[in-house]
Amino acid sequence: MNFVETILMTLVNNGANPSLVEVCGKNKIPTTGSQLLECIERVQNLLRSSGVRPGDRIVLLAPNSSMWVACDLAILAYGAICVPLYSRQLPEELAFMAKDCQPKLIIISDETLKISFQAQSPISCEIVTFEEIRKTDRTSLTVHKIRPNDVVTIVYTSGTSGNPKGAMLTCGNIDYMLSQTIERLESATKVFGQCDRVFHFLPVCFAGSRMMLWSQLQHGHYLMLSTDLSNLVEEMATVEPHYYLTVPAVLERIRNGVTQKIKEKGVIALLLYQKGQHIFFQKTKGRKSIFENLILKIVRPIVFSKIRQKIGKSLKFIICGSAPLSEETQRWFEMIGIPVLQVYGLTETTAIITMDRPNSVKPGWVGEVIEGCEAKLTEEGELICRGPNIFRGYWNRTKASEEMIQNGWLYTGDQAEIDEQGRWRISGRINNILVPASGHNVAPEPLEQLLKEECPQIDHAVVIGHGRPFLTALITGNIENSDIAQTLERTNRFLPHYRKIRAFYRSNEPLSVENGLLTANQKLRRKAIEAYFKDAIEELYRKEAAA
Fold first, then answer.
1. What is the pTM of this model?
2. Quick check: helix, strand or coil at residue 70?
3. All domains of the chain, ordered by start, with CATH?
4. Per-residue pLDDT tens for 250-283?
């Protein structure tokens, strides 16, 4: 059986038991297997009445909810192709993607979003809301025969440069990846114990999020689903999850928030925290003494364990993906007793290429290649891979598909290295390499990470300097210019001349999805950022050159 058939059978077997639980503040709203199947039948009746045929594209535009899941499964079981879009993305990007995939039907969460969408996208196909689906009669369930090579979903890439592209994922891609995901989750359970309370707050339209969703549904475990990202602290307390999937930006915010709270508690608390952290980090480098071990034994119960209780007293581990997590942040969570397992992949690799195993985690690295997938480095240091997880190509983009996949190998565009145990580390993007006037190749990501580690008050750091006489940085965050200057001084001290950052511009305006400077999964849109701050950057270089 394929993953769609397995999930539907699991829902039937679940019957009156919860398959999903929507979390809204302190409230938990369960949806049983039978209720989810009923919603699926209503969606399929609407698909049939709208003239949808197998192979048609159906856009699904809505925030997380049980109804979103029902629509997704109904479309897949019907044999149509689900095209999930992120509801918070820029309106012009949503309009582009909706038009690009040539949909037969658009399913949208509510009338307000529908009006907003139509204002930006004068698309001719039918648009229906969740409310219309709820008013539709049930019909018998259709389960279309899906072959392994059939495209079942088109997931648009985040578009860090240029327009987003629709990655076509097949049933075979997803069947393979779910088997790998479930195997790794089961290996984590063997190490950490039973982990049945899973919380999910990332948008389920993303490839990695759907792997988490489908793996839980296929395995018969219910998923706690956040429907409102504005109240995560309360929802975490409501759920008390055993684990969750997240992105580095969230973990960095947690760490920075804890540090700020401790500062507010006074000098003694801050000194204990800083001393304990320093000793722990030194210990991970093999430096320790009997006296320092004694201090660490004192600090652990009165500082670190209390931080852990606040972050999640039932948390056994965290899974982190979308971008590489810094070694320091990963070690910080290790310090307070919450292991972080990293996962690495692209939409085009059905979300995953490597995954950490609980007993072989190396902070700052993203784990080993999953079974059945091959990976190697090119002479330029780019990670390339092949296997059952490689997508069919981009929708209506033959040239881009051929550039991405060459002789069966998918070119990730990521600079990487591998250690003697087969674990991988991602150091940056090949296409982001800066070549200043000195002629040296400079990857901006490691420098940006150094700045953020040196000064946690920095929200975003963007290193600039391609074709310029020297490097500069654009900084955002609640931080004074004098603190940024000191951070640059400390960072530059150990860098070669061509990697030193000579000047900075601090922006009061944050980088966000809403202003188009971050992608939907929080990655920097470098070209957009440089264009947006063009005048400020030019003035920065003029001033520094004249100094």
1. 0.87
2. helix
3. 3-242 (3.40.50.12780), 245-313+317-339+356-386+398-430 (2.30.38.10), 435-546 (3.30.300.30)
4. 898 899 889 889 988 888 889 989 998 888 888 8
